[in-house]
């Protein structure tokens, strides 16, 4: 192959040289030939890529095709239902609702309703017409110690930092949130000028790096936090314990990206590498976490404070619940991020194989809070591939009070699922800091699309609730959602996730599914106390088998 290239190059140069003797214009062929020869020589002499070294020039086509493969697959090969992470049907309905185009479908469903995991809503003959609603439902967030409760939408923008997203993307999201009266989570990158400029409601996320409220050594700075928490646009504070895309994994901001603007926003030094540790320095056990939440609530003058986590080891959440009881301190909300959550960049193993999926995590958290009689104080926010009205209804039925969406909101901005978020080459100017790309995202147009998408999605959820004979999201029940688990068996969410009786974890005997978890947990530590139980008998998979609709809504008996 190398020899063939050398022979072909020599023959081409010789042929053109001879031809130019009679036709001088033939010299123009060197404009094509010489660059190819130079490329081939470079390929033959470099040592990093074997295919280029062995197949000069021609070997480059392999990398071109590799780059084109996702685009070719998405547009020419995949069906409307088999795309990943989001299929064409889900992407299309987001685009249609954002642009206020027709979002109905013709000729019936393309889904195989007899496939395992096909899900549907149980409708009612006593349906309500919720399509004419003028005011979308809202949820009041704020527990006993909160003096500035926040009235939140059912559907909000999930955590995405400036830096991960462009300034134009942040501006469009925040201005869209202002138009639609819903909340925009800042992500752990801090309160940027672009979050504040749009005038939308903000949920300020505090991560393990304490960006925007830290001392130079990386520890939490209460004075700086209090100053920024007083910002009128900041409606709630969220402490990020872990995220679904890469739970238990810290982040790293390379020194080259820490310019003066990023350094000011994140309270770090210009030109120095910044690491987000995998865990917090401000607390090390559940009791200290509750004290930190109480401190943040006081420093923010009573604004709602909560935490976000992806469920990993169940006993850790039980330990947190015990700490709430012991300290008589409660977060105002808990955000549950499913293991299917997304991010601009995460290791493959963490994205694919770490973290409990949202459906299981949400049911566990709701049941645990109910068992400790804590749910009355705490609202639950669900996050993880939430894009449609049915996603909202499913999660609320499982136990959520409201939902976040990240990738759905990105698609409303114009994301085409190019899967280049981690390369700074996002073609639509969302997940990039390249000014040549970001200028393609026009804030004035995209902010309206974000607001449209939000409104139409919540409205579709209300329509679905009306079909089930429900006007209030609080009336959604696990029995309303059905799931095919085999060709001949259908279960409701209630069958799969039976409710736990209110207060049943405050006294013995505990529900069977929680017995070992209760035995091995302490409010003093996130670590399990295996000395309290025979480890050989420990069964993480224990599940309840009873069914009792009356535990949640006696009217469904």
TrEMBL record:
Protein family according to the UniProt entry: Belongs to the glutamate synthase family.
Domain of life of the native organism: Bacteria
Originating organism: Albibacterium profundi
Name of the protein this chain belongs to: FMN-binding glutamate synthase family protein
Keyword tags: Membrane, Oxidoreductase, Transmembrane, Transmembrane helix
Entries under PANTHER family matching the protein: ARCHAEAL-TYPE GLUTAMATE SYNTHASE [NADPH]
Pfam families membership: Glu_synthase
Segments forming domain Glutamate synthase: 153-470
GO MF term set: oxidoreductase activity
Ranges annotated as spanning the membrane: 29-45
EC number: 1.4.-.-
């Amino acid at each position: 192959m190398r020899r063939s290239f050398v022979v072909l190059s020599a023959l081409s140069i010789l042929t053109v040289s001879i031809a130019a003797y009679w036709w001088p214009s033939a010299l123009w062929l060197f404009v094509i030939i010489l660059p190819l020869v130079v490329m081939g020589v470079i390929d033959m002499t470099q040592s990093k890529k074997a295919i280029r070294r062995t197949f000069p020039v021609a070997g480059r086509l392999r990398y071109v095709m590799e780059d084109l493969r996702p685009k070719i697959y998405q547009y020419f090969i995949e069906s409307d239902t088999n795309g990943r992470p989001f299929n064409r049907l889900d992407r299309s309905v987001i685009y249609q609702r954002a642009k206020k185009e027709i979002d109905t479908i013709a000729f019936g469903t393309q889904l195989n309703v007899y496939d395992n995991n096909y899900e549907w809503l149980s409708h009612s003959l006593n349906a309500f017409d919720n399509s004419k609603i003028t005011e979308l439902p809202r949820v009041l967030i704020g527990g006993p110690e909160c003096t500035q409760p926040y009235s939140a939408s059912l559907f909000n923008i999930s955590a995405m930092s400036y830096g991960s997203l462009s300034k134009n993307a942040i501006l469009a999201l925040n201005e869209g949130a202002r138009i639609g009266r819903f909340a925009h989570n800042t992500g752990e990158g801090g309160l940027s000028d672009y979050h504040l400029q749009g005038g939308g409601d903000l949920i300020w996320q505090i991560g393990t790096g304490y960006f925007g409220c830290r001392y130079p050594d990386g520890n939490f700075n209460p004075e700086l936090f209090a100053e920024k928490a007083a910002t009128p646009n900041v409606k709630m504070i969220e402490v990020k314990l872990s995220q679904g895309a890469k739970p238990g994994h810290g982040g790293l901001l390379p020194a080259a990206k820490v310019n003066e603007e990023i350094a000011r926003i994140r309270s770090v030094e210009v030109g120095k590498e910044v690491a987000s540790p995998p865990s917090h320095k401000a607390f090390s056990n559940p009791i200290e976490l509750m004290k930190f939440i109480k401190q943040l609530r006081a420093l923010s003058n009573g604004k709602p404070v909560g935490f976000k986590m992806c469920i990993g080891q169940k006993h850790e959440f039980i330990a947190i619940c015990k700490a709430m009881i012991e300290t008589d301190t409660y977060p105002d909300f808990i955000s549950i991020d499913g293991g299917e959550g997304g991010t601009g960049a995460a290791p493959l193993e963490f994205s694919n194989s770490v973290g409990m999926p949202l459906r299981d995590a949400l049911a566990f958290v709701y049941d645990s809070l109910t068992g400790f009689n804590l749910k009355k104080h705490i609202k639950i926010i669900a996050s993880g591939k939430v894009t449609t009205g049915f996603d909202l209804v499913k999660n609320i039925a499982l136990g959520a009070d409201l939902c976040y969406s990240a990738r759905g909101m990105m698609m409303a901005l114009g994301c085409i699922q190019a899967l280049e978020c981690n390369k700074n080459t996002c073609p639509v100017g969302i997940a990039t800091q390249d000014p040549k790309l970001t200028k393609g995202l026009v804030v004035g147009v995209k902010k309206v699309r974000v607001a449209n998408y939000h409104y139409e999605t919540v409205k579709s959820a209300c329509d679905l609730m009306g079909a089930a004979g429900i006007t209030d999201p609080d009336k959604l029940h696990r029995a309303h959602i059905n799931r095919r688990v085999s060709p001949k068996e259908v279960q409701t969410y209630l069958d799969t996730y039976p409710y736990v009786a209110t207060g049943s974890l405050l006294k013995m005997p505990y529900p069977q599914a929680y017995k070992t978890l209760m035995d091995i947990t302490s409010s003093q530590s996130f670590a399990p106390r295996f000395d309290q139980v025979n480890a050989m008998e420990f069964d993480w998979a224990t599940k309840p088998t009873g069914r009792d609709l009356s535990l949640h809504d006696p009217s469904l008996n």
